[in-house]
Amino acid sequence: MPITAPIIIEIDKNTWLINEYKGTLSYLILGSDKGLLIDCNSSSIDYDKVATRLFKGKSYDFISTNPSNYNSFEDEIIDLGKRKIRLIHTPGNTKNSVSYYDENSGIIFTGNALLSHIYLEEAVSDELLSLLRIRSLKPKRIYPSKLDLDDYRSLKEDVLEDAIGASRAFLHSSREAYLDKVDSNTIVYGKVKITLKEGKIWNEGEPHTPYPMGM
User: Tens of pLDDT along 60-108?
Assistant: First the structure.
């Protein structure tokens, strides 16, 4: 049955997932002082009304996992009051991509940086570094901008590992033996598919070493 109204689910204490009509997900989180709305930019939902009800009158800010001014707050900490959100620059699908890590719950909101099917506008080497940054945080749960599962469970850890494997397979052809499928622009590795929209493996001038710069 198609979704005809947004579905709101509390996925953790004072943390809500909203499933919009076309399967796009947004998130609301609340600290002791204020709230935060992540990717709540759909014109079909009155997010102010939803936030007013869930946050019980506390103030709140809107943020995006694909902001235009990402360079101005890389590695910034947003303090919501007894709840801190760390901003992680995770380019790959786009150069502006930012993930938000909730240090209290261990949940990370990755937008389009980690999905079961990732479309890259930036270099694969950038995507790999972003995925390794996400893994280094050892998140307890991963919530992207879309989920394949109807019950809204978070992405499993093996999805992150398969995404890392797919990225490495693009960079190092010796890993092709581990692939289910490979062509010039798409690789399927375990549960993850990566497609290059621009067909770029490395950044211009980046040495094609066994590991990309920054690793």
Answer: 999 999 988 766 556 789 999 999 999 999 999 999 999 999 999 999 9
Which residues are bridge partners to 108 per DSSP?
101, 142
212: tokens are 């990309």
Cα–Cα distance measured from residue 116 to residue 113, given in angstroms and rounded to the nearest whole number: 10
Longest alpha-carbon distance in the chain: 56
Question: Which DSSP state fits 155?
Answer: B
Say what the pTM is. Answer: 0.90
Give the bridge partners for 29, in sequence order. Answer: 15, 36
Q: What angle do CA 162, 165, 167 make, to 5 degrees?
A: 110
Give 79: exposed, middle or buried? Use CB within 10 Å, 0-12, 13-18, 19+. Answer: exposed
Cα–Cα distance list, 49 to 37, 39, 131 (Å): 12, 16, 35
Q: Report the candidate in 142, 146, 161, 191 with the shortest Cα–Cα distance to residue 11.
A: 142
- The CATH superfamily label for domain 65-196 reads Ribonuclease Z/Hydroxyacylglutathione hydrolase-like (3.60.15.10)
